[in-house]
Model the fold of this input.
Amino acid sequence: MNDRDTVYWMIEYGAAFTEYYLSLFFCGTWIGQRTSEKKTLPKILACAVISFITLAVNRADLYSPVSVVLGVLLMIALQLVFYYRSAVKASMSGLIFLLLMVLLDNVTVSMIS
Done:
């Protein structure tokens, strides 16, 4: 692996971590549950682990249906771990967040190209 690959995968990890971490704030706001400062470290650790799993799957095959399905399942699981009292709202808000991220990605790519 050369230096470019290392930088690419570091950026990829940072982007995945940021998406998962921001999803917790979005979904918490959507559900109406305030985030506790006591849960900050568990949220960071959960996002770090899930980002690592995402990165490992993307490294095997960057654009595959497996990575898409796994990403959706991991996003829903992350929301259910922290917002388990309202499972349906947590699942739906996770899916809405993912759809908004896809929309933002497509708009950004369309504007650049």
Q: What stands out?
A: Residues 28 and 34 are 6 Å apart (CA to CA). DSSP finds four helices and no strands in the chain. The radius of gyration is 15 Å.
